[in-house]
Specification:
This protein is of the alpha+beta class. The chain is built from 3 helices and 4 strands. The longest helix has 10 residues. It starts with 6 loop residues before the first strand and ends with a helix.
Length: about 90
């Protein structure tokens, strides 16, 4: 339902980036979107969660040439979010 050039951000466990069960999602994303950035935090982002969290930002892109020429930014956040926002 995302319009052309529309952006989507989703929060997930970062495990989908390097496990077998995440490969289908990666393939789907690469077929339909430009990956703008993937942020991975060093602290738990959700109370009680014991998984590493990733924020993924993607942009709907129908043009396959533009998708393949896209530069992805992988960002590792090494400080606590509270410190960054203070």
């Amino acid at each position: 339902f995302l319009s052309d050039n529309g952006h989507l951000c989703f929060l997930t466990s970062s495990q989908w980036l390097d496990t077998d069960y995440g490969f289908k999602l990666q393939e789907f994303i690469l077929r339909h979107f430009e990956v703008v950035a993937i942020f991975e935090g060093m602290e738990p982002w959700f109370t009680g969660a014991r998984v590493a969290t990733a924020a993924t930002i993607i942009k709907r892109q129908k043009n396959p040439v533009k998708r393949m020429a896209n530069v992805v930014r992988f960002v590792q956040i090494r400080r606590r979010i509270a410190e960054i926002l203070a």
